[in-house]
């Protein structure tokens, strides 16, 4: 059992290569199939849970190792404490594949197709639960690994990231039933036909245009100041931020100039009005800024300024636990790490898109774009998505390319272009079909000039959110549950 547990952890670690920056998208199919073979061979629910835990630890310790960078390298937490905190965080995330493994062992019917459907349904439900409970952390949900050129990307506008994860899990489960069979036989022909159907179906769906252009193309300058986090909140270094973003804006005039999350380390009302006018030039301005509230609190916001309209604001509604607010009972945490402005208030759940340069813009701040259903609250009115992030918190790590890949899924789900303005990277433009059309190298002070076309239309995912994927996941669990329930019934004498 020890060897199998180590192998499960290795499979989890290898899975990360399926995500950005390597994007070896077939790899998660194979590593998940390997985990499912181990689950089929488990002798108890406890063993299945342990294998799932090991796979999860391998995956998350490898894939979200940037948590340590954020806590220690940038946040100043002592190295041993940061290592323990990172391990504990990844262990909590690993509980979800452990729960899936235990549920599979308890509910399986020992019939290949119902059990493959069961694995797919439980996997999709497990990833959704991880993205919801305790405010959610859906990072490294397997569907994110299937951005273009993966054929499965075609299912994103219909079923979203959790639906793609469920399809990937079903394909992996069929492979596991085929290659890992012992007492259960399954013919390779139906397995290959089902796999081929998903690959061909996804490829054909990628040809569908779910939205259409509206309005005129918009010239946008996305500014990447590359101000180190260690200097950003030092009052003596404020002139550095002001000069850097001022020079970038003046040197790259556009119809819309976009600055990242809290680009200027001041409350919005403290930023000089003439400086803001200089940033906007002859066009309009969208910048991330901390906004003071009438009750004395403050929000992490986005502010739109234009010559023909007043100030429009958006307040971040999905805050980062331990980064932007203090969970109850954890005030002691902020004595161990340096995080400025760590007590934000959440914005209203529903906020209208901002009217900017003839487009309806739906801003989202930092990791808000991890939550697909929350992006939908501004749709179908919004014609353009813009993410404002300060990824300097994560240093030179996997977080930056992984976050861009997440943004690509949001563009696919909504059939809208997604623009990203970040402090250190990755500043980029994503087309409605999930392709990155332009991007700046990370850790360089520069401006990305793009021409973007707003889009309108309603994808099935925009209409139904995660309901379709969750409904199919529950339905997939039904056959195995029914068959297993019958086999467990005591026979009448």
From TrEMBL:
EC number: 2.3.1.269
Mode of membrane association: Multi-pass membrane protein
Pathway as given in its UniProt record: Protein modification; lipoprotein biosynthesis (N-acyl transfer)
InterPro entries hit by this protein: Apolipo_AcylTrfase (IPR004563), C-N_Hydrolase (IPR003010), C-N_Hydrolase_sf (IPR036526), LNT_N (IPR045378)
Keywords: Acyltransferase, Cell membrane, Lipoprotein, Membrane, Transferase, Transmembrane, Transmembrane helix
Sequence intervals crossing the membrane: 6-38, 50-69, 81-105, 117-140, 152-179, 191-210
Compartment(s) where it occurs, according to its Swiss-Prot or TrEMBL record: Cell membrane
NCBIfam families recorded: lnt (TIGR00546)
Record function comment: Catalyzes the phospholipid dependent N-acylation of the N-terminal cysteine of apolipoprotein, the last step in lipoprotein maturation.
Protein name: Apolipoprotein N-acyltransferase
Species the sequence originates in: Denitratisoma oestradiolicum
Gene label: lnt
């Amino acid at each position: 059992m020890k060897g199998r547990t180590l192998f499960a952890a290795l499979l989890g670690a290898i899975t990360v290569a399926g995500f950005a920056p390597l994007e070896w998208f077939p790899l998660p199919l194979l590593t998940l199939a390997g985990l499912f073979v181990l689950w089929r061979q488990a002798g108890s629910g406890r063993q299945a849970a342990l294998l799932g835990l090991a796979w999860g630890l391998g995956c998350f310790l490898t894939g979200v190792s940037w948590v340590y960078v954020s806590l220690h390298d940038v946040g100043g937490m002592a190295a041993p404490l940061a290592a323990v905190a990172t391990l504990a965080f990844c262990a909590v995330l690993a509980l979800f594949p452990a729960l899936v493994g235990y549920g599979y062992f308890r509910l399986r019917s020992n019939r290949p197709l119902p059990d493959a459907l069961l694995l797919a349904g439980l996997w999709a439900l497990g990833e959704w639960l991880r993205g919801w409970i305790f405010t959610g952390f859906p990072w490294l949900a397997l569907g994110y690994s299937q951005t273009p050129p993966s054929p499965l990307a075609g299912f994103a506008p219909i079923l979203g990231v959790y639906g793609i994860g469920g399809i990937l899990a079903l394909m992996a489960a069929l492979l596991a039933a085929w290659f890992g069979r012992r007492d259960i036989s399954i013919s390779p022909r139906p397995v290959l036909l089902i796999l081929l159907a998903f690959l061909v179906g996804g490829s054909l769906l990628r040809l569908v245009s779910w939205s259409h252009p509206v309005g005129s193309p918009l010239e946008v300058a996305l500014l990447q100041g590359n101000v180190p986090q260690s200097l950003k909140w030092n009052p003596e270094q404020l002139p550095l931020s002001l000069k850097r973003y001022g020079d970038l804006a003046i040197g790259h005039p556009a119809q819309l100039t976009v600055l990242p999350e809290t680009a200027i380390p001041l409350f919005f009302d403290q930023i000089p009005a003439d400086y803001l006018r200089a940033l906007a030039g002859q066009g309009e301005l969208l910048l991330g800024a901390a906004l003071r509230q009438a009750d004395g609190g403050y929000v992490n916001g986005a502010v739109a300024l234009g010559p023909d309209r007043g100030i429009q604001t958006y307040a971040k509604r999905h805050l980062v636990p331990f980064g932007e607010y203090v969970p109850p009972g954890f005030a002691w945490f902020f004595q161990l790490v340096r995080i400025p402005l760590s007590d934000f208030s959440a914005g209203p759940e529903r906020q209208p898109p901002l009217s900017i340069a003839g487009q309806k813009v739906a801003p989202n701040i930092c990791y808000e774009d991890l939550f697909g259903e929350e992006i939908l609250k501004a749709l179908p009115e919004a014609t353009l998505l813009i993410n404002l992030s300060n990824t300097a918190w994560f240093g030179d790590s996997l977080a930056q390319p992984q976050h861009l890949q997440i943004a690509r899924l949001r563009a696919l789900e909504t059939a809208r272009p997604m623009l990203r303005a970040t402090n250190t990277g990755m500043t980029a433009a994503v087309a409605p079909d999930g392709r990155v059309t332009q991007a700046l190298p990370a850790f360089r002070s520069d401006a990305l000039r793009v021409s973007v076309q707003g889009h309108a239309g309603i994808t099935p995912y925009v209409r139904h959110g995660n309901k379709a994927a969750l409904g199919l996941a529950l339905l997939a669990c039904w056959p195995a549950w029914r068959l297993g329930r019958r086999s467990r019934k005591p026979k009448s004498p």
